[in-house]
Specification:
Elements: E1 3-7, E2 17-23, E3 30-31, E4 36-41, E5 46-50, E6 55-59, E7 66-68, E8 72-77, H1 87-109, H2 127-136, H3 154-164, H4 185-200, E9 203-211, H5 213-230, H6 236-250, E10 256-259, E11 262-265, E12 271-273, E13 275-277, E14 280-282, E15 285-286, H7 294-309, E16 323-327, E17 346-350, E18 353-360, E19 363-377, H8 383-398, H9 400-403, H10 409-412
Parallel strand pairs: 12-16, 16-17
Antiparallel strand pairs: 1-8, 2-4, 2-7, 3-6, 4-5, 6-8, 9-19, 10-11, 12-15, 13-14, 17-19, 18-19
Helix pairs in contact: 2-3, 6-7, 6-8
């Protein structure tokens, strides 16, 4: 017998273990080469594990198991013949139909007396519930069971014991069930990173507001033409990305990271864009965003967002990044303090756009306004740099034609 040992491949640099999230096949199934057989969670993404050969599979790990990279998780018998398929079950179907019919009258008569539904008052207590009721001297017939077929659960017994112990006689009438679910590797890693950021950085947040009037005008005026020429929509993220890359070049300490006693500055702007996916928040990276056109930013964000939502994003596409942009406004957030994405030193938070009265040239006018927040590591970014950076972003959003589009809106948008 020729058996292949399938080992966990390395999903990416620095990843040493993964969790078996879901087996897509059962033990003893016949699998085809390259057929997805499992989904595995790393601390960065969820990946599919394809079969390396065709044959009968034997699983060597359970769902939820954390396994090391290089560990054997299943065996594939390459010499096993492919099953005939569904022919055998189809031939047996008539036999299964006829047997119950012959015995049907007798079976229907006998169970009727015992089939009377058991009331909640007469439901049998579980062993744990019985112990509690016996200790408190409570008659099980006086307790309503919430379990299957009126079975009295431990929580039912504890609730009934409250008056007997001198407590309140009030009882709950709604469902009191709980569900315990193990967090995925990705969610546990996110939790660990967020706590470490709060504990290990001198994080501070500064705020400002931006006037979205000009961006609204540009999108309304050129959105259709932009879409026809470039094949993507003209959204807000391209304006904010370009405003951020400009501000990073003006304030290089914001585009840096700290490593012990050293600071690393980057001469490129790799912008991480926070995208919500089925497995949680992912941060794919736009490489060298400072050199991208508006259409290139929009196309790359669209491509990465689709990959995140389809579960096809790779570890390499989420690795790195020198600065993060997150948009809580898509969920209705008015204001928040975003948490830094380590080892980066700063993050920009966008929020929802509200029509608000503001003073312009001594007159009160209604403008589409957005609050923006920048959280930063005060160990390497001073207040002057953080405030200056956010003001530079504001300048780019308030006046995109002169600052982001070079004074020529059509040329700047590639039209």
């Amino acid at each position: 017998m020729s058996v292949l040992e399938m080992k966990v491949p390395s999903p990416g640099e620095s990843i040493t273990e993964v969790e078996i999230a879901t087996w897509l096949v059962k033990d003893g199934d016949y699998v085809e080469k390259d057929q997805p057989i499992a989904e595995v969670d790393s601390d960065k993404a969820t990946l599919e594990l394809p079969a390396e050969e065709s044959g009968i599979i034997t699983l060597k790990a359970e769902e939820g198991d954390v396994v090391q990279v290089g560990q054997v998780v299943c065996l594939i018998d390459r010499d096993a013949a492919k099953p005939a398929g569904s022919a055998a079950p189809a031939a047996e179907a008539p036999k299964q139909e006829e047997a119950p019919k012959a015995a049907e009258p007798a079976k229907q008569e006998a169970p009727k007396p015992a089939a009377a539904p058991q009331t909640y008052a007469t439901g049998a207590p579980s062993p744990a519930a019985k112990k509690i009721l016996d200790e408190k001297g409570i008659d099980a017939s006086q307790v309503s069971g919430s379990g299957r077929d009126g079975r009295i659960s431990k929580s039912d017994a504890e609730l009934a014991a409250v008056p007997a112990m001198g407590g309140s006689s009030l009882s709950a009438t709604g469902s009191r069930s709980t569900t315990r679910t193990k967090l995925s590797v990705l969610r546990r890693k996110i939790a660990q990173r967020l706590v470490s950021v709060k504990n290990e950085t001198a994080m501070l947040t500064t705020f400002n507001e931006v006037d979205m009037s000009e961006i609204f005008r540009l999108r309304k005026q050129y959105k259709e033409e932009f879409g026809q020429k470039h094949g993507v929509g003209l959204g807000f993220m391209s304006f904010f990305t370009k405003a951020v890359t400009r501000a990073l070049e003006m304030y290089p300490d914001v585009n840096a990271s700290i490593d012990g006693d050293f600071k690393t500055n980057y001469d490129f702007c790799d912008i991480s864009i926070a995208v919500s996916g089925p497995k949680g928040l992912m941060v794919p990276v736009l490489r060298n965003a400072e050199n991208m056109s508006f259409s290139s930013v929009e196309a790359n964000i669209k491509d990465l967002a689709i990959k995140v939502r389809d579960g096809k994003i790779t570890v390499d596409e989420m690795t790195g990044g020198t600065f993060t942009i997150t948009n809580g406004g898509t969920f209705g957030s008015m204001l928040s303090t975003p948490i830094i994405n380590p080892p980066q030193s700063a993050i920009l938070g966008m929020h929802n756009i509200i029509q608000r009265p503001v003073a312009v040239d001594g007159q009160v006018v209604i403008r589409p306004m957005m609050y923006v927040a920048m959280s930063y590591d005060h160990r390497i970014i001073d207040g002057k740099e953080s405030v200056g950076f956010l003001v530079a972003v504001k300048e780019g959003i308030d006046n995109p034609v002169d600052i982001l589009l070079g004074g020529d809106e059509r040329k700047g948008l590639g039209l």
